[in-house]
Amino acid sequence: MAQISVQHLCKYYQVHHKEPGLAGSLKSFVRRRYEMVKAVDGVSFEIQEGEMVGFLGPNGAGKTTTLKVLSGLLYPTSGQATVLGFKPQERRKDFLKQFTLVMGQKNQLLWDLPAIESFLVNQAIYEIEESQFKRTMGELTELLDLSPLLTKQVRKLSLGERMKCELAAALLHRPRVLFLDEPTIGLDVTMQVKIRQFVAEYNQRYRATVILTSHYMGDVTALTRRIVLINKGQTYFDGDLRGLVEKVAPYKLLHVIFRQPVSREQLLDFGEVESVEDIEATLRVPRGRTSEYAARLLAAFQVDDVTIQEPPVEDIISQVFQEQAALVAATV
Fold first, then answer.
1. Which residues contact 314 (CB under 8 A, 6 or more apart)?
2. What whole-number distance in Å separates Cα of residue 94 and Cα of residue 293?
């Protein structure tokens, strides 16, 4: 049985619209005008134990709303969702002890106290035995290098240090399911890498199931193979990340360093020219014929280096949503 099962999940809101000024307030008092917002509108997917899945979409697509429903923070309007065999909205004690929700923009640590004090609070909340608490704290301290941070006031920690402590606090009870909503937002590149390494290590050590939302494609490509794309509350794609790249971008990139400067005109017969600057150039070539195009370049020019690259995942995701938006606009 899938650890997470979502079938035709919907979450709708009624949003009140008020015109500006006193007249708008009086009109709103007499007769309110509402608009139905479909935050999630028929999303379906299943995730097996130990999978790490990227849950992607533009702002307002419904990602965080879906995670809140799966965490039991929101009741679904319709559809079915189960996590570890539980209905999240019932918020049973056994369910609450087996998952965690980490939101990069939300804090659970007590601001004026050292992080270790929040950890002790969580130990009491989750009823963690002392022996297990010490063992888990030791593992998390080692993995996240927490030793110099535990006795500092949370307010005095940097953003990256605080995020490491937030993750530790969320994982003290060794959850089997992790919902990670923008866990590296605002962090520098070095700290992003450390957080990714930690999540990967936790997944391998405990076979935890992970749903990750992030606008940093580095998080997604480093941690997940499968992605679920949603837009306007609906599922657009569910499958292998590489498969999406091959579907949307039937080309690869040749990055070439020549021995002498070249012009755009000289390269027109060797693929679609993306950029040319002095001795460097990037060309789009058909995915199935990259070796042929590379060989032709080597035969025609003096080349110091040539590399074959996949197009950036950010560009692929952006292209997917641009095409979908254009399709919707054409049908209106």
1. 217
2. 58
Nearest to 178 by CA among 88, 79, 99: 99
pTM of the model: 0.80
Pair type for strands 52-56 and 303-309: unpaired
User: What is the edge-to-edge ordering of all strands in the sheet holding 4-17?
Assistant: 33-47, 4-17, 78-83
Residue of 225, 277, 229, 189 lying closest to 58 (CA atoms): 229
* Tokens at 255, concatenated: 């990055």
Backbone angles phi, psi at 116, to 5 degrees: -60, -30
In the chain, domain spans: 4-245, 250-309
- Reduced to 3 states (helix: H, G, I; strand: E, B; else coil), residue 232 is coil
Nearest to 195 by CA among 212, 173, 208, 207: 212
For residue 67, pLDDT over 90 is answered with yes
Neighbours of 71 (CB within 10 A): 21
The confidence score (pLDDT) of residue 300 equals 93
Q: What does the pLDDT look like over 215-235, one tens digit per residue? A: 888 888 889 989 998 888 888
CATH of 250-309, one of 3.30.70, 1.25.40, 3.30.1380, 3.40.50: 3.30.70
Give the three-class secondary structure for 290.
helix
pLDDT digits (tens, 9 = 90+) for 250-302: 889 999 999 999 999 999 999 999 999 999 999 999 988 999 999 999 999 99
Domain 4-245 adopts which CATH fold?
Answer: Rossmann fold (3.40.50)
User: 255 - beta bridge partners?
Assistant: 282, 307
